[in-house]
Structure formats: structure tokens, C-alpha cells
Design a protein that fits this description.
Aconitase, domain 3, four-stranded parallel β-sheet, binds FE3-S4 cluster, 14 helices, Aconitase, Domain 2, 3 domains
Length: 398
């Protein structure tokens, strides 16, 4: 891979340990994937923030980098393992909280914004069309590539961090227009009526296209929240972190539907629900906000919970970013949700909080949330927001 004089100096250690280490990672990646050069990036999203996933070895690595490492571009963080302010309310133990805070301290020292959300595009890290970025949260990567038309590979936590210290990333994969063309035409004839149907659609498309780029037709109307849910699901279940949706996503205009074609109809959506939903009735955990809930979703939750009470046998979380929670505070949604017995889980989520063994069954609107909850040994139910709220109130899935 070609390096400029300045990049060679960084590789030689002239800008210190963190930059040298980062250049080594980026050059190794570039050589593996055949990149010709590094490309400037506008922003970074760093995943791998939860102490639950990092452990002591990860914390030690971050502390080493934090000694002299400072990010060169706007850099935001993925969810951590706990709400950084109200972790006690969510049942997180003292030792975990202490370690998680050390992780956050290391990121803060590096100059990273302690945003702790998987929807950075809702809180100020919003790339523009065609901009190169280095993001490492699969749902956000898919949103940035597809809905915005920015360009990023699905980075790992260390390679995203390396890009942040250098301000560049190797130019390969989805940074190149030639690799962004669709491979498969997906015609959607299914009727999508609830929010969770978009997670089910993502399941169907991801499973069927497997590591290809779908060109999707048949969608005439979709909201930002539905797209964010679809992005999380489609990449979790198999596709590359890029899709084109005719008439909706900006790059779809550049392409024609490929010859290879699959059709997703109502029976596929039904089968997705059957595959995602386990055979269970009791619900002891409800989590809404995967990806992190927008202010619009929080308003809908508050509206559905008004004058109702969550079952004493059920824990109810709204996972969101702190800025969304602050808006919810001002609009009075927080009061309604908390009076009903719900809790806000800011900065964290159902996949990265240490939940294994705490709950038996989760109800959620999110297909991705179900996928990761199974890794936490929970039985899963995916349904509409109304069904999830009803499950929270009654403690039963009906
Ligand atoms: Fe976000 Fe966690 Fe879901 S990172 S997409 S809320 S699994």
C-alpha cells in the first residue's frame, strides 16, 4: 500500500505510540485487503465499549493507547455495558461499574465523545453523502452506507480506533464505488404494517441474500425508525452492510435491478416471526430501543404507557442515547414512563449489558435484539410496540 511521507513518519513512531500502533494496524489491513492507499475520513464510531466484552485485556490495551493517543476526527462511542449515571437502578454490580468507568475514562482521555449510542447519526455524528468514514457498529454502518450514502466498511473496534488516531482508513471494500453495486434484486410484495415487520423483513432479506448487496424494490413508504430497524436486522442476519432501496436510498438511482431475483412475500414474513419467536408465554423483561430509541419512539412508548403500570414481575427498559433521554425529560415522556414503572437504560443496550442469567424471556420490537438475547440464553418474543407494552403490563405474551 502506498504511504505518503507523513504516513511513513507516523508508522516510524514520530507521532508517538498510539499513532504508530494504529498505522501498523491500518497498513496490515490495507495489505490484506489490497488497498492502494489510505483515505481521509470525516468521522469514526467505535464499538467494543462494554467491559462485558472487553474484559481486563481490552481495558489494558485501551489504557496503553490512552497514554499518548488523541483522536484526529469526530469520534463517538457505541453503547457501554451500563447506564453511566443510573447503573444501580438497572441492577449492575459495583465491580462491573468500576471497571466500565475505567474503560470510559480511557476513551475520554483519547478525546472521544462519550456518546455511548448505536445511533450516532441521531446525536450529531451525521456524515454527508459520499463521505468516507470508519464506523464499527453494524446497524450504524448499514444506515450510513445505505440511507445516507456515506462510505464505510464494517470496522472492528481496534481498526476504527486506529482510524481515529490517524484520521484515515485503508481505501478498500465499500470505500470503492466498484464494490457498492447490488448483486441481487429483492422484490418485496409483503405487506408491512408494524414496526417489528421491518425487523422481520431484514431477517428474510439477510438470510436469503447472505453476504451480497440487495437492490430492494416494492417499498414506497418507510420512516427513519423503520429504516434503522431494517438496517440492524438485515446485516445481523446475513447481508453486507449496504443495500439499495429503489426510490428511497440515494445510491439506488445509480443502479439497475440485478438479474438474480428473489421475492419476499407475506409467508416469508410469517416464517421470520416463527423463527424468531420462541414458544413461551411469561415475559420477565421487555426492552424497546434496538437500535437506540429515537424521540419519536419514546413519545409512542409514553403514549401507550399513560395511566398503566408495568407488572411487578417484569423489568421494562427503554434503551436510548442520553440526548434523547434529555429531550424526553423536557417533553414529559420520562415522567410518564417512569411512573408506569419503566426504566431508561441510557448509554447501554440489551446486547452489551451483563444480562446473562438475569432474565428468562425478553419481549422486544427488534429482530437484532432477539438474536443477541438468545446469546444471553433468553427466550425471545418479537412483536409490535403495542404487543411489547402489553407484555410489560401483564407479564404475559398474548
Ligand atoms: Fe444498538 Fe445494542 Fe441493538 S448496539 S443495534 S441496541 S444490539
Amino acid at each position: 500500500m502506498y504511504l505518503t511521507k507523513n504516513e511513513e513518519r507516523m508508522l516510524d513512531g514520530e507521532e508517538g505510540y498510539a499513532v504508530k500502533k494504529s498505522m501498523e494496524i491500518l497498513v496490515a489491513l490495507g495489505n490484506i485487503y489490497g488497498a492502494e492507499k489510505l483515505v481521509k475520513i470525516g468521522s469514526v464510531q467505535v464499538a467494543g465499549v462494554s467491559y462485558h466484552n472487553l474484559g481486563d485485556a481490552g481495558l489494558e490495551y485501551l489504557n496503553e493507547l490512552a497514554k499518548d493517543g488523541k483522536v484526529k476526527v469526530l469520534t463517538t462511542l457505541n453503547p457501554a455495558g451500563m447506564d453511566l449515571e443510573n447503573w444501580r437502578k438497572l441492577g449492575i454490580d459495583e465491580e462491573f461499574a468500576r471497571k466500565q468507568n475505567l474503560v470510559i475514562d480511557a476513551f475520554r482521555k483519547m478525546g472521544i465523545i462519550i456518546s455511548c449510542t448505536c445511533t450516532p447519526y441521531l446525536i450529531g455524528n451525521l456524515p454527508i453523502y459520499g463521505e468516507h468514514i470508519a464506523w464499527s457498529e453494524s446497524s450504524a454502518v448499514t444506515f450510513a452506507n445505505s440511507v445516507i450514502g456515506a462510505k464505510t466498511n464494517r470496522e472492528g473496534g481496534p481498526s476504527a480506533l486506529a482510524a481515529a488516531f490517524v484520521g484515515k482508513t485503508p481505501c478498500y471494500g465499500l470505500h470503492l464505488d466498484t464494490n457498492r453495486a447490488p448483486d441481487t434484486h429483492v422484490e418485496v410484495t409483503a405487506k408491512l404494517t408494524t414496526f417489528s415487520d421491518w425487523g422481520a423483513l431484514g431477517y428474510c432479506v439477510g438470510k436469503q441474500v447472505q453476504n451480497k448487496i440487495p437492490y430492494i424494490t416494492g417499498i414506497n413508504d418507510v420512516s427513519l425508525d423503520e429504516l434503522k430497524s431494517f438496517c440492524a436486522s438485515v446485516v445481523t442476519f446475513g447481508s453486507k452492510p449496504l443495500f439499495h432501496m429503489k426510490g428511497i436510498t440515494p445510491e439506488s438511482e445509480k443502479h439497475q435491478p440485478p438479474k438474480e431475483k428473489i421475492v419476499i412475500d407475506d409467508s416469508d414474513i410469517r416464517e421470520a416471526y416463527e423463527a424468531i419467536n420462541d414458544d413461551t408465554e411469561d415475559i420477565d423483561f421487555v426492552c424497546i430501543g434496538c437500535p437506540h430509541a429515537s424521540i419519536k419512539e419514546i413519545a409512542e412508548i409514553a403514549n401507550l404507557l399513560k395511566n398503566r403500570k408495568i407488572s411487578p414481575n417484569t423489568e421494562f427498559w427503554v434503551a436510548t442515547s442520553r440526548p434523547m433521554k434529555q429531550l424526553a425529560d423536557k417533553r414529559g415522556y420520562t415522567r410518564i414512563i417512569e411512573e408506569a414503572g419503566g426504566k431508561f437504560a441510557c448509554d447501554t443496550c440489551m446486547a452489551v449489558a451483563p444480562l446473562k442469567g438475569r432474565f428468562r424471556t425478553v419481549a422486544t420490537t427488534s429482530a437484532k435484539g432477539c438474536y443477541y438475547s438468545r446469546h444471553n440464553n433468553m427466550l425471545t418474543k418479537m412483536g409490535s410496540l403495542e404487543e411489547c407494552i402489553n407484555a410489560g403490563v401483564s407479564g404475559k405474551w398474548s
